[in-house]
Amino acid sequence: MSEIxxxxxxxxxxxxxxxxxxxxxxxxxxxxxxxxxxxxxxANSAFSTTVAGVMLGQYVTRLAxxxxxxxxxxxxxxxxxxxxxxxxxxFCISISVFLQVFLLPILGAIADYSNLKKRLLALFCYLGVAxxxxxxxxxxxxxxxxxVLFIVANLSFGAALVFYNAFLPEITSEDERDKVSSRGxxxxxxxxxxxxxxxxxxxxxxxxLGISTGMAVxxxxxxxxxxxxxxxxxxxxxxxxxxxxxxxxxGQTYLTIGFTQLGSTFRELARLxxxxxxxxxxxxxxxxxxxxxxxxxxxxxQELFVSRGLEASESxxxxxxxxxxxxxxxxxxxFERIANAVGTKRAIMLSLVIWxxxxxxxxxxLQTTGQAWAMAAMIAIVLGGSQALSRSLFSRMIxxxxxxxxxxxxxxxxxxxxxxxxxxxxxxxxATNSYRQAxxxxxxxxxxxxxxxxxxxxxKAIHEAGNALPEEVGQQS
Length: 477
Known about the structure:
Elements: H1 3-7, H2 11-22, H3 31-68, E1 73-76, E2 82-84, H4 88-112, H5 117-134, H6 143-166, H7 168-171, H8 177-204, H9 206-209, H10 213-238, H11 254-271, H12 273-304, H13 314-342, H14 344-364, H15 369-395, H16 403-415, H17 420-432, H18 435-441, H19 443-454, H20 458-464, H21 470-476
Antiparallel strand pairs: 1-2
Helix pairs in contact: 3-6, 3-8, 3-10, 4-6, 4-11, 4-16, 5-6, 5-10, 6-16, 8-10, 8-13, 8-15, 12-15, 12-17, 12-19, 12-20, 13-14, 13-15, 14-15, 14-18, 14-19, 17-18
């Protein structure tokens, strides 16, 4: 009897779940199914880049400013503050993140107790697609509708990711997971970057084509929805549904089980201490990564242009963004090779050391646009690798039958704390009036994350979850 079985009264249930997992339909490492799964990264990245990353925020904010004034008030909450034209879109982001933090673990629990994982993935995928396509109709005073559609689309995007990621340990063996996760991310960066490049060309060529810039933006938003929905058809054609891996308890429904099992998921996570430690470390270093990405444009614009009395070059910033998007494809594939050579944990730790070096470079050495291109290239190389390997490593630490529940927690670890880094960045800018000091302050997230990861016994976490290490799978085959 293993150590984890002696410690946990739920071991027998977990063993049954693992046995059900092995006979739940669909063999692992099926090339057609794996490719179909990876194509969802290609499909949904259109929303990340074109809609959430570049187009919608500026467009909706401009509509709100025309309707309300430069920073006119939409809603006042008295002493709690107001929602203004400039804060409207960030307010919508905050609402969507709050809803994700609340709903994603519940949805994950429902998926683990049913055979609905593929259907739920499709439901939230096409709910997001519909909301994205409807953004084409947002004009004039309909900016509030645009915000509501974004909330629905972003919530659906996050919910679909829970079910999508939960398929990774079901369709791949442990020794194939880094490769599949990395190639999925690579396809995502390529697909999202390609559509964004085409849409930026459309916006720039709008006068030549005889359409307004606003119409070009609306067509771009529509194209993201069509792209997301169309390429997802490949995923749903090839991805096989899995049978329920846990039996629904007597007296429970799919709706109630999502709430009642939320506490069970947290108790299970508390029992898997190394997995919990990894998740805490991921919370820190991923927040640092997301903040560097979200604040890089502002940092470069302020330090290379505004602080020198120059107008920020929009073409330069867009070029940097696109370069990162495409170069991250190679970064994801490179770090897959590094993980294969030195191990996944060490590869992630290497990426965090490079991330720390990037913020130090931005603070002390960045002076020219040429250096900015070089720094952005390094960001691109570690971006894809750190994200893809973090996902694949976590997938090995999940007990069979709890994939969606645990990936629900993984998603809220990524999204629920995404305000911490920007909060620190903004506070340092306010206190020092220096964007360089602010970018340097983010090093704490990488250092803390690196320390926690170094103290995490990931091999033990994998074994505690009842799974095998990649090299153990290779020995068995």
